[in-house]
Amino acid sequence: MGRFGVTEILVILAVVLLLFGGKKIPELMKGLGSGIKEFKNAAKDDQTADKKEETKE
After folding, report:
1. Tens-place pLDDT, residues 4-52
2. What is d(CA 7, CA 13) in angstroms, rounded to the nearest whole number?
3. From CA 53, how far away is CA 16, in angstroms rounded?
């Protein structure tokens, strides 16, 4: 159970393409991208809040 090779990644992409079809994939990627962006923003806000609490003490 090591890293994924090129062949494994291509097989996974082919299965995803068959399951969701060509039209749904851009929508899925857009949703994934916005989710990652929200997660990064929340993490940054959390770090900022932690730094503010440290300076108060």
Report:
1. 899 998 999 888 888 888 788 888 889 989 999 999 999 888 888 777 7
2. 10
3. 45
The DSSP string of 22-56 is HHHHHHHHHHHHHHHHHHHHHHHHHHHHHHHHHHH
From first CA to last CA, the distance across the chain in angstroms is: 47
Q: Which two tokens stand for residue 32?
A: 């994934």
Query: What global pTM score does this model have?
Result: 0.54
Q: How far apart are CA 57 and CA 46, in angstroms?
A: 17
**Tokens in use for 10?**
């291509």
Contacts within 8 Å (CB) and 24+ apart, 38-45? none
